[in-house]
C-alpha cells in the first residue's frame, strides 16, 4: 500500500527556468494539499485541490505558481521563472475526505534548489 | 504575534529521559491539534491527533491540550535515540466549507543521546 508519492525528490533549476513537481496521493484519497517548507520555517499551506478543482489557493503566491489535479494522473505544482527564494522543500499531503485533519498523510517532499 | 509559537531547540536529553515539547497559539478557533515527527530530509509523520481539550495517550507518547491557555504539549516517556527528530505541532479550525488546512509551528529539534 504505497503512501503519498512525490517526484522528483530533488530538483535543481537555474533562475528563470520552470519547475514541475508531481504528487500521486494515497490510494483512495481524492484530496490533495501542497505545503512549502522554507529553511528555518515551518510548513506553510499553499493550495488544496480535489480532482479537477482548486478548492483553496489562498496560500499560493499570486504570480508564477500554479497547481492542478487532473482527472487522470498526479497533481502538479508548477513554478515558472524560478527565483532563489523559491528554494525550499515542497510537500504534498492527501486525505480521504476534506474535514479529517487527523487523516492527512504527507509525502517525502520535493527539494527544489534554485541556482 | 505568530499564530503558532514553538521553541526551535535543539533540546538535548539522555536516553530514558521524559521529554516535554510545547506549542502556544493565538487563534481560538483551532479545534484540532496534531503532533508530527519529521526525520531529517523526510516528510512529516503523524504521531498524535486530538480534538479539543484533554489528554490522549499512545504508547510512550501523551498529548495534552489546554484550550483555555491556548497551550498544547507532547510528552515522550523513556526517550530513545530513535526519537531524535524534529517535532512539529499543527492545528486547524473547521472552515465553513468543511475542510481543514493545517497551521504548523516551526518545529522543535530533539536529540536523544545514548
Q: Tell me the fraction of residues in β-strands of chain A, as a range.
A: over 45%
Beta-strand level of the residues of chain B, as a percent range? over 45%
For the largest interface, the chains and their residue counts are: A-B, 27 and 28 residues
Largest sheet of chain A: 7 strands, mixed
Number of strands of chain A: 11
Distance between the amino and carboxyl termini of chain A: 36 Å
What multimeric state do the chains show?
Answer: heterodimer
Number of strands of chain B: 11
Average residue-wise pLDDT of chain A: 92
SSE topology sketch:
The complex is a heterodimer of chains A (115) and B (114).
Chain A: E1 5-7, E2 10-13, E3 19-24, E4 31-37, E5 43-50, E6 53-56, E7 65-68, E8 75-79, E9 88-95, E10 105-106, E11 110-114
Chain B: E1 4-5, E2 11-14, E3 19-25, E4 32-38, E5 45-51, E6 54-58, E7 61-66, E8 71-76, E9 85-92, E10 103-104, E11 108-113
Parallel strand pairs in B: 2-11
Antiparallel strand pairs in B: 1-3, 3-8, 4-5, 4-9, 6-7, 7-8, 9-10, 9-11
Would you write up a description of this structure?
The complex is a heterodimer of chains A (115) and B (114). Chain A is mainly beta and 115 residues long. Chain A is 0% helix and 49% strand. In chain A, the strands form 2 sheets. In chain A, strands 2, 4, 5, 6, 9, 10 and 11 form a 7-stranded mixed sheet that branches. Chain A has a 4-stranded antiparallel sheet with strand order 1-3-8-7, with no helix packed on it. In chain A, a hairpin with a 2-residue loop joins strand 5 and strand 6. The model of chain A has no long low-confidence stretch (mean pLDDT 92). With 114 residues, chain B is an all-beta fold. In chain B, the strands form 2 sheets. In chain B, strands 2, 4, 5, 9, 10 and 11 form a 6-stranded mixed sheet that branches. In chain B, 36% of the residues are buried. Chain A binds chain B through residues 4, 31, 33, 35, 40-45, 48, 55-56, 59, 91, 98-102, 104-109, 111, and chain B through 4, 6, 8, 32, 34, 36, 41-46, 49, 88, 90, 92, 94, 97-107.
Amino acid at each position: 500500500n504505497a503512501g503519498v508519492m512525490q517526484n522528483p525528490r530533488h530538483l535543481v533549476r537555474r533562475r528563470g527556468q520552470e519547475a514541475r513537481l508531481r504528487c500521486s496521493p494515497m490510494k483512495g484519497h481524492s484530496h490533495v494539499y501542497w505545503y512549502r517548507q522554507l529553511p528555518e520555517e515551518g510548513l506553510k499551506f499553499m493550495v488544496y485541490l480535489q480532482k479537477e478543482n482548486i478548492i483553496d489557493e489562498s496560500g499560493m503566491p499570486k504570480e508564477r505558481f500554479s497547481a492542478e489535479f487532473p482527472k487522470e494522473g498526479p497533481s502538479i505544482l508548477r513554478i515558472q521563472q524560478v527565483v532563489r527564494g523559491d528554494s525550499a522543500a515542497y510537500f504534498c499531503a492527501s486525505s480521504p475526505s476534506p474535514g479529517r485533519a487527523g487523516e492527512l498523510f504527507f509525502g517525502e517532499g520535493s527539494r527544489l534548489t534554485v541556482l | 504575534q505568530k499564530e503558532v509559537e514553538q521553541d526551535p531547540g535543539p533540546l538535548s536529553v539522555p536516553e530514558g529521559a521524559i521529554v516535554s515539547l510545547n506549542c502556544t497559539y493565538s487563534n481560538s478557533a483551532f479545534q484540532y491539534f496534531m503532533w508530527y515527527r519529521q526525520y531529517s530530509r523526510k516528510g512529516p509523520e503523524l504521531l498524535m491527533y486530538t480534538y479539543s481539550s484533554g489528554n490522549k495517550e499512545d504508547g510512550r507518547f501523551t498529548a495534552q491540550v489546554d484550550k483555555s491557555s491556548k497551550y498544547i504539549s507532547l510528552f515522550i516517556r523513556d526517550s530513545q535515540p530513535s526519537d531524535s527528530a524534529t517535532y512539529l505541532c499543527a492545528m486547524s479550525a473547521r472552515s465553513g466549507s468543511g475542510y481543514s488546512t493545517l497551521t504548523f509551528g516551526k518545529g522543535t529539534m530533539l536529540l536523544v543521546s545514548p
